[in-house]
Design a protein that fits this description.
The complex is a heterodimer of chains A (307) and B (224).
Chain A (H helix, E strand, L loop, with lengths): L5 H7 L4 E6 L7 H11 L5 E4 L11 H10 L4 E6 L5 H13 L4 E5 L20 H14 L15 E6 L6 H14 L3 E6 L3 H13 L7 E6 L5 H9 L8 H8 L6 H18 L5 E4 L8 H8 L8
Parallel strand pairs in A: 1-2, 1-8, 2-3, 3-4, 4-5, 5-6, 6-7, 7-8
Chain B lengths: L1 E5 L2 H8 L4 E7 L2 H4 L5 H15 L5 E7 L5 H4 L11 E4 L3 H10 L5 E3 L1 E11 L2 E6 L15 H4 L16 E2 L2 E5 L1 H11 L29 H7 L2
Parallel strand pairs in B: 2-3, 2-4, 4-5
Antiparallel strand pairs in B: 1-6, 6-7, 8-9
The chains are: A alpha/beta (307), B alpha/beta (224).
Family (chain A): Belongs to the methylenetetrahydrofolate reductase family.
Keywords (chain A): FAD, Flavoprotein, Oxidoreductase
Organism (chain A): Desulforapulum autotrophicum (strain ATCC 43914 / DSM 3382 / VKM B-1955 / HRM2) (Desulfobacterium autotrophicum)
Chain lengths: 307, 224
Amino acid sequence: MKSGSKLERILNAGHFAFTGEVGPPRGANVEALKEKVAHLKGVVDMANITDNQTAMVRMSSWAASLICMEGGVEPNFQMVCRDRNRLAMQSDILGAYAHGIHNMLCLSGDHQQFGDHPQSKGVFDLDSMQLIGMVKKMRDEGKFLGGADIDVPPKIFIGAAANPFAEPFEWRVHRLAKKVTAGADFIQTQCVFNMERIREWIRQANDMGLTDKVFILPGITPMKSVGMAKYMKNKVPGMDVPDEIIKRLQGVDKKKVADEGIKIACEQIQEFKEMKGVAGVHLMAIEWEHKVPEIAERAGVLPRPEV
Amino acid sequence: MIVAERKPFDEIKNMVSGYKRVLTVGCGTCVAVCLAGGSKEVETLNAELNLAFGKDKIKFGAETLERQCDMEFLAELDSKIDEYDALLSMACGAGIQFLAERFPNKPVFPAVNTSFIGVNLDVGWYEEKCRACGNCVLAMTGGICPVTMCAKSLFNGPCGGTNQGKCEISNDQPCAWYQIHERLAAQGRLDQIIAISPPNDWSNQKPRKVIQPGYEERVKTLGR
């Protein structure tokens, strides 16, 4: 065991993992955060706690992670490279670990110009690949990036993201390989809507032997409306929403669109359960946390295994 | 001007090994003035490369353009480019990229490290003066750049680390804000730095473009 986190135990035991996501509040609204977490308790193995997502200021990921833990859900502490240099990153990692946080997702982060402080100075002292390597060095060698020894190294299960849909497609699996080499233990992907592409990407990862070295959890986002599907297709960079999805949502009664969205998500999860090289799924029900228990139930991933 | 330094010889050697015909391209402007990449430096580098590889293994050509950051000067190479498998540019990073853009099928390697925007203090002695941050505050600071000359890029200095006019990072480094204070005091303009300077707009954090007014229509027709 590298970290002993619940997610690591579940994956090592060969169970199909089911992870969720919580966006911290844009304020100190602890109650709202606790409510989101409560919907996920007993339903997901772990919840990602986003880090100033889309470059908008929110409650810090490590602080919200602690609240998540208190609510009975294991957190996945997200860290982006945009907001901190290597000193701040390492000190936050130590602090988070000291409070019992054992999973971390290492990301570059959206550029600051997209958020609510476009004039800010992006830090990007390290990139996501270098951050993964730094956490691995801290954990496995017990050393800071600068080379000094760490007195009690943090035992972190290292997560990274992959986007199998961005161009150039052929290079995507190589970027995955780089993250594996850097030290990623598990991968959560960008929201999957194009099943054909993800099948091909997983096949390439299988062929390269990557799925023996890293746990891959494709990202699932249920569509709430036709508008959301169109927005994701046209406005969100790196998102691949095939026309079939939009047509399928348009084809049902207006009141049933959300239900159809959930149905699509459940079908995807079914397929991933049987796909070689896939270790679980990561459900990103954006501001729809209360629907997660229903989705989990319908997707047949409950009850969650006890490990 | 832009100041550059030649890369370590072994690094250059590794980049070009494996090619048969390499054209070393100098630049006659900034990098020539700072003695890093003009025609003399092209000659010296090629001599060293010939010594290292032997004249039979790689054929090194030499051309020094007036400016590599100007397409009309790059066009001078059009007729010669087919004679070479790779280009070794001694221009600044901007020139190297423009050369690579002009000849996208040829590998283009940098022979210099572009260091900073600076000034000539004496022969062979250059000092950084500008970080091209895109939001010039020199009016407020008596003509001394706090972004470049203050090690912390402070806008409301001097910080507590200032040490009898020197910066905390080194006794060789003057404290920019001490100098700003001195200069403004001498000019009777200390009121310039009494007000709190608000958080800066770091617009240099994304790729920038300048189109001077009056040329906007022309740029549109060029479609770039």
